[in-house]
Each structure stands twice: as C-alpha cells, then as structure tokens.
Design brief:
Elements lengths: L1 H19 L12 H7 L7 H23 L7 H20 L1 H7 L1 H6 L1 H4 L5 E3 L5 E3 L7 H25 L3 H21 L4 H6 L2 H9 L23 E3 L5 E3 L13 H7 L7 H19 L22 H33 L5 H24 L8 H24 L3 H16 L6 H5 L9 H10 L5 H17 L8 H4 L1 H6 L4 H14 L8 H24 L12 H14 L3 H10 L3 H29 L7 H24 L15 H9 L4 H14 L19 H7 L5 H12 L8 H10 L1 E5 L4 E3 L7 E13 L5 E4 L4 E2 L1 H6 L6 E15 L3 H7 L1 H20 L1
Antiparallel strand pairs: 1-2, 3-4, 5-10, 6-10, 7-8, 7-9, 7-10
Length: 858
C-alpha cells in the first residue's frame, strides 16, 4: 500500500513539474531550475553509467533473442517485445525525453562499436590522406533519408502484420538482422549514421518529440557545457567526458531538438509527409492487427476478410498506404485552415505558424492514439492502472502542447541571443548592484535585455565588443545567419545602444578575426564548429595522457604521432582547419604572435587602401563614402589590435599610412563588405568609370552576404543621374563628408529633391523654416537688407543653423538664372543626423560660434 501511495505521489509531482515547466520560457522564471535539473538527471548522467545501462539493455536484447530461438521456453517473447519493449521506448520518448532514449538505445550502441574499436571504413580524402567516410548532405542518402526511413517503417509494419508479430523465429531473424545492419552501417559511415539516416524509428522520434518532450532539457539556454542533450560523447583515458560529435547531420536533434524542429519546419525533404501520415499509420495498423490471423506467416495469402477478399500480402500495404494518404490530406487541410485564420488575424509568418501548430497537434494526437491501443505494462498494474497511465500520457502531452503552442522560432532565437549576452555580462562593473542579489543565470530574456540598458558602464566601444563576441558565438554555432542578422539581433543592438552602422562595423571586425565565418551557410558553420570542438578536446586528451606541454614536433613520440593521425582521420576537418587546430596547441606565444602580425599587416594594407581612396576622391567625390567606410572598419579593428599589441609589448599601429594599392583593389575589398549598400556603391562607381558595360570589372559573387534595395538597383543598372548628382552635392558639403554609403542613402531617403525655376523665391527674409537646403545643381542668390548678394553653388547649404536655433531667416534667397535643383532635409531627422555624422555636429557648432562671436563684439 505504501508503495502505491509513493508511486501516486511521484506521478503527481511529475505532472506538477511538467505543468510548471510551461513557464520556463521567455516570459517567466517561476520554475525552480534546480528541481527541474534533478528530475532531468538522465541528461547529466555520466557516460560510464550510461554505458552500463546500454550493456544491460543489449544483454537483455540478447536474452530475448535466445528465448525466441530456444524451443520450449515458457515466455511469450513476441508479446514481451511488441507489447512492452517497443511501447516502452516510445513512452520514454513521448513522456520523458528523447535524450534518455537516444543515449541508451541498444541499436545506437551497437552501431558505435566499430568507432569504439577504431575499425571504421576509411577512404582517401582531401590531400590523399585516409578519412572516415561520412554521409554527405548532397548525396542521395543525405537528401532522401527520411523517405528511406519511412519506407522501412511501413515495410516493418507490413512484415509484423504478415509474419513477425506471432512467430518467434521470424522475430529472432528480424532482430538479428537489425543488429547486423546497425553494426554494418556503423562500420561503413562515421557518426550516428544508423540513427540519423537508416533507422525507421529516427523520424518517429522527431514526430514524438516535436520541439521538446515534457521533461526535455533546453540546449540553447542555461547550458554550461559544450555537450548537450543526447549529443555523442566519449570518455578519455584519464576519465574526462568529451564530445565525440563529427557533425554527421545538419540540425541534429541530439544536439538541440528544439532548433532541429524550427530549422526543419520547412525544406526538409519527406519530413512533412512523415509527420502528417503517422497518425493514419497508427490507426490502420492497430485495427489490422486485431483481425484474426494477423502476424502469422501461414495466413499471408489468405483473404483479409470475407467482405474484402484481397490477399493479406497485398491488403496490408494497401490499407496502410491509403490510411497514410488520408492522414496527410487531413492535416494539410488543417494547416490551410490555420494559415487562413492567422492571415485574417494579420499574424507574421502565418504559414510557418500554421505548419508549427499542425505538427504539434499531429504529435499530440499520434501519442495519445498509440497509447489508446497499446499499453507497455501489459495489464500488470491492472485495468485501473492502464487507464491511469493513459490519462497521465494525455495530461503530460496536453501540457507539452500548451507550452509549445505559444512559442515560435523568434522566441527561440531571442532566448538564444539573451543566453549568449548573459555570458558576456558576467565581469561588467556595477553588475552586482543592478542585479540586487539575484543570479544572472536566473534572469529571463526580457530581464537580460533590460539589464543591459540599465547598466551605466557600457559605452559604445564596450557595447561593440560585447556585440562582436555574441555575434561570433552565434555565427560559429550556426544559430545566426549574418545576411539576416541585422533584424534577428535588432533587440540586442538597441539594448547596447548601437546603430545599423555599428552592426556592419562589428561584422567587418568579426570577419577579419575569423576569416570565412561570413561565407558559409549557417548549417556549415555549425558543422565546422562542432568538428573543431571535438577535435580540440581529443587533442587536449592526447597532450594530457602523454604528459606533453603542447604539440611541439620534437616532443611527439611515434605512438603520439600515430594517435594524432587517427584523430585527424576521424575529425572530418579539412587541411586548413586541422592545421589551425594544431597551431592552437603549439608554442602559444609564437602562434598568437603570428596571428597578431597577420591581422596587423592586413590592417596596414587596408589603411593604405583608405589613403588611396581619399586621393581618388579629390577627382571624384563619390569615393569619399567608401574611404569613410574603410576608416570606420579600420578604426574598430585597430583599437582591438592595439590592445593586444600593448599586452604583447608591441608599438600601437599608426592611424594613417601612405597610399598603397589601387582603387580597384579597394573596390574589390569593399564589394565583399557585410553592408550591401557599400557593395551597391561599388557597382555605382563601376558604372560611372566604365560606361561600356562590357568593360566593367567582373566582381566575385556575394554568397550569403545579404542584399538591399540599392544594391539590387545597381545590379540592374538603374542609374538615377539626378540622385547621383545629389550624392556629389552632399559629399561636397563639409557637414556630410564623413558619411558612409549607408549613411548617405539613409539621408537621401529621408530628404526630398525639389526643382525651382528661374529666380524663383526659395526663402524669404524673416521666415522661420523647419528644414535645411543643399544646392545640388544651379545657383542660389542670397540678398540682405543692404542689397548685398551672395552666390551659393553645388554643395553649399542654407538654413542648417536656423533650424537648430529657431531664428528667422536673415536673408532672402532666389534661384539663379538657370533655376536650381535643391535637396531638403527636414528638422525631424536632425537628431539622428547628429548621431550619425560627427562632421555635421562639428559644422553646426563651428557655424554657431561664428555667429555668436560678432554678436559678442557688439
């Protein structure tokens, strides 16, 4: 009786914990993280303990097979396997977490034996050196594995209905064949290829898990280890647990199940069909299984029923396929209805939200339908216990559905960004006072962003540094696409008080310090980073075990060199990445010095190109914004490098160098700038310098570097001569000659070009105006009370100080004899203009001082 009460109390606490975990999101911190972690202890179980569990389960698997082959054993092994083992695994995934099952699955364990014994298949890779074979994303298996796995699942269901359900020998052959297949795949390919690409249960686990199981952990927040969820891991010879991930699949659910859910919401071939068809397969399978004679190979050719006299060999696959099609059609209708409803509500990305909710609903219905037909306890706890289990499953999956229904990809990204930001705030001065006794790790994303705004210690340079570190981590992990980063981390940028210009400055710095980081797609960056992390951990182990100070060639024994070569073969890294890993473990001072000098030399080269552009601007003012762009990029990089150079005892880099290189070199460099407007400006100069399009230089492709309206206009050669002249006029004005292409385009989009006729009155003496004027073409004649005239031409301005001070116009102004083309800047954008342009600020202050000086003399 006591045990029953204890069981009931534990179940009650479990359901209560799952209910509270609904609030473990971006809007609340009600849940006790320590309690949740305690309930999720399977995620932090040591690898050694999990190995004991795996061997135990594998031994049980072996005993089960022997019982099937041994005649006269008084155990209904078929019923045990199909009625308890299979449903029990699904119960763990659906009600607890996919992490536990994927860490203990016997088949996954068997598939890794070849890796553990270092007997995996190898073939010559890049450079001719042998490498462990991996499934390539663009291979047939990489593109079609969901279809293959789902076909194997349907074939397995048919096989069970035809022969395996009640026949011991058939089931034993199936289990032995599955073990052999898992071992063979584990030998043929690296990583978890069996689980990710072959096993029929792989997609089922994605369907049952959806974004997160009731007690699934989160990999993107409050995670202090690089090893997350059910990620592949191993134990080093000195007892340290380390990553064994070789990035065998994009968006792996073993690393971050929720990210896998969002990233695979669209574009994952075959997954939508599998997700939508699963409910239909469950319903039809269990109904077919209830037909008398199912599961006996002797009835394979018998008619299904008297009213449906089709041989079962044909009827079973036909009924399963038809049910799957009906299920897919039903859920697609639901998705369309939800999409229509969300469109009426004017929700953003309604099609994605509709698919998300359709899949979550499908998961909820599939789990509960399965356990309506099946019961892992096989009546051991009585009919009441079986009913209680179904209600528990219903309650927990309903809680999970409710929790996931409110979330979307934007919430996930926001939490991920806040977690990266949280790590960068630890050492900021004034943090303890701002937290008022609370833990930084306990803050919600809303509170983290609010904290950043409240801290007085963050200036522009520190803000740029924090922003650069957060962007670097998110780009390396593949959680951020830099082409859309401007919008995705907008809240972070605003919290740090940074502008769009700062964003592009920081991206430029990140690309300088991490070459190639902005070139690959997000999944490629994640793959590379996972492989580098795993390789670093394994190299660290080799150094520790061999008692080395580093990877100095003279210290390595023949055995250590052989081990290092085996690590390289299994790492999946290309030659450059592998050598970079090795350098980081070499003589620290020389490696850092070499890297610092490379960056310093590149900074000198770019500063020389900046001087070249300044020289070119003497003839063509349109080069000025590009020179300003390089200046801003180099200023931030120089500041970062000089801090490192000072710590290394080196002299700081000078702020200017003699002109080096050519304007074409500078344009090639700026064409690949993270800011698409800068690239568009380069194209505009190409068209200006080479009116014959066939003579224009061929630029490299800007893969994954983003685009803008201006860049696309220049790619279509949509030249606006009037606007180009407006650019020149603004750049001739000292108030605007420090703007970058992005700044100039922002200004021209905010202003307006007006045409005036001959001697048309532009401003009247005594009027108060709320705009300033820049003369683009023609002249303007100013006349004072004494009849004295002042002629203004291209690039000169009218009214800028009067807008600030609010004084009436001191002179009247008329267009010249040929009229004038003017650019107006409204007073409402002056605040933003003052922030964007120090030259504008200095110019206004200088003019104000000149106006005040004569007044004081009187």
């Amino acid at each position: 009786m006591t045990n029953k009460i204890l069981f009931r109390n534990n179940i009650s606490q479990y359901i209560h914990l799952c209910y509270r975990s609904i609030h473990c999101d971006s809007t609340s911190s009600l849940i006790d993280i320590n309690v949740l972690k305690a309930m999720q202890s399977f995620d932090i179980w040591s690898e050694n303990k999990m190995r004991i569990i795996r061997w135990s389960l594998l031994s049980g698997w072996g005993v089960l097979i022997l019982s099937l082959l041994w005649p006269g054993v008084d155990i209904n092994s078929n019923r045990l396997f199909w009625g308890s083992v299979v449903p029990g695994g699904l119960l763990i995934i659906a009600v607890i977490s996919h992490e536990l099952w994927r860490r203990v699955c016997p088949l996954a364990f068997v598939s890794q034996l070849a890796r553990a014994l270092d007997k995996q298949r190898r073939k010559p890779g890049r450079g001719g050196k042998p490498e462990v074979v991996k499934v390539q994303p663009d291979s047939w298996l990489g593109r079609h594995h969901i279809e293959l796995q789902w076909s194997l699942l349907i074939a397995g269901l048919c096989l069970r209905l035809l022969a395996v359900n009640n026949h011991p020998l058939a089931l034993a052959i199936l289990l032995l064949g599955t073990l052999a297949a898992a071992m063979t795949v584990g030998w043929a390919y690296g990583g978890k290829t069996w689980c990710q690409y072959i096993c029929p249960m792989g997609p089922v686990q994605q369907v049952l898990t959806a974004a997160r199981s009731p007690l699934g952990t989160t990999a993107h927040v409050n995670n202090t280890s690089r090893i997350t969820q059910s990620m592949c891991r191993t134990v080093s010879r000195d007892g340290h647990e380390q990553s064994a991930c070789v990035a065998c699949q994009r968006n792996c659910m073993d690393i971050d199940a929720e990210r896998s859910f969002w990233e695979n919401l669209q574009g994952k071939r075959g997954l939508d069909w599998a997700w939508s068809s699963y409910l239909g397969l469950i319903i039809s399978f269990f109904n077919l299984l209830r037909i008398e004679g199912s599961g006996n190979p002797a009835n394979a050719l018998s008619p299904l029923t008297a009213t449906f006299p089709v041989p079962r060999l044909i009827a079973y696959p036909a009924v399963l396929s038809l049910s799957a099609l009906i299920s897919v059609g039903t859920f697609r209708l639901i998705e369309r209805a939800l999409n229509h409803y969300y469109n009426l509500q004017i929700r953003s990305e309604s099609h994605k939200r509709a698919r998300q909710h359709t899949r979550q609903l499908s998961t909820f219905l599939a789990i509960n339908t399965f356990f309506f037909f099946s019961n892992p306890f096989q009546g051991i706890i009585g009919e009441l216990g079986d009913t209680l289990l179904r209600y528990i499953v219903l309650a927990l999956t309903a809680i999970s559905l409710f929790r996931g229904w409110k979330r979307d990809h934007a919430v996930y990204k926001r939490e991920s960004t806040s977690d990266n930001l949280r790590k960068k705030l630890k050492d900021l001065p004034g943090l303890d006072e701002a937290l008022d006794g609370r833990s930084l790790m306990a803050l919600t994303p809303d509170e983290v962003f609010t904290l950043v705004k409240a801290l007085p210690a963050i200036g522009q340079q520190k803000g740029q540094q924090i922003y650069a570190e957060v962007l670097t981590e998110m780009l390396q992990s593949g959680r951020l696409n830099h082409a859309t980063a401007l919008l995705e981390v907008e809240e972070l940028r605003h919290s740090l008080g940074l502008s769009q210009d700062d964003h592009h400055l920081v991206l430029s710095l990140v690309s300088e310090k991490n070459p190639g980081l902005l070139n690959g797609a997000s999944f490629e960056r994640q793959t590379d980073e996972l492989r580098r992390d795993a390789a670093r951990e394994q190299i660290e182990e080799l150094i520790r075990v061999n008692g080395l100070d580093g990877l100095t060639p003279g210290q390595l024994t023949a055995t250590a060199k052989a081990e290092l070569e085996l690590l390289r073969q299994g790492s999946g890294l290309d030659k450059n990445d592998w050598e970079e890993c090795l350098k980081s473990f070499g003589a620290k001072s020389s490696w850092k010095q070499e890297r610092l000098e490379k960056l310093s030399e590149r900074c000198r080269w770019k500063t020389g190109l900046q001087a070249t552009l300044i020289k070119a601007a003497e003839q063509e003012p349109l080069y000025i914004p590009l020179a300003n762009c390089l200046n801003q990029r180099q200023k931030l990089l120089r500041h970062d490098l000089n801090a490192t150079r000072k710590a290394s005892g080196l002299d700081p880099l000078p702020e200017s160098f003699e002109a080096t290189g050519s304007t074409e070199e500078a344009l090639n460099l700026l064409w690949l700038d993270p800011c698409p407007d800068t690239a568009g400006w380069v194209l505009m100069l190409d068209q200006l310098e080479h009116t014959d399009r066939s003579a224009q230089p061929i630029r490299a492709t800007r893969d994954n570097l983003g685009t803008s309206k201006f860049l696309e206009e220049q790619q279509r050669s949509e030249l606006d001569l009037e606007m180009r002249q407006c650019f020149r006029a603004l750049l001739k004005a000292p108030l605007f000659n420090d703007l970058t292409p992005e700044g100039i385009l922002w200004l021209t989009n905010k202003g307006q070009i007006i045409h005036t006729s001959t001697e048309e009155l532009i401003v009247q003496k005594g009027d108060t105006i709320d705009y300033m004027l820049v003369i683009v073409m023609g002249t303007v004649e100013l006349i004072n009370d004494l009849g004295q005239k002042q002629i203004l031409s291209c690039g000169e301005t009218i009214g800028e100080l009067d807008v600030i001070v609010g004084t009436p116009q001191r002179m009247s102004g008329r267009a010249g004899k040929e009229g004038a083309l003017l650019f107006t800047i409204n007073a409402v954008i002056f605040d933003e203009l003052l922030r964007r342009s120090p030259s504008f600020t200095r110019g206004l202050i200088k003019e104000l001082a000149e106006r005040i000086a004569p007044a004081k003399s009187h």
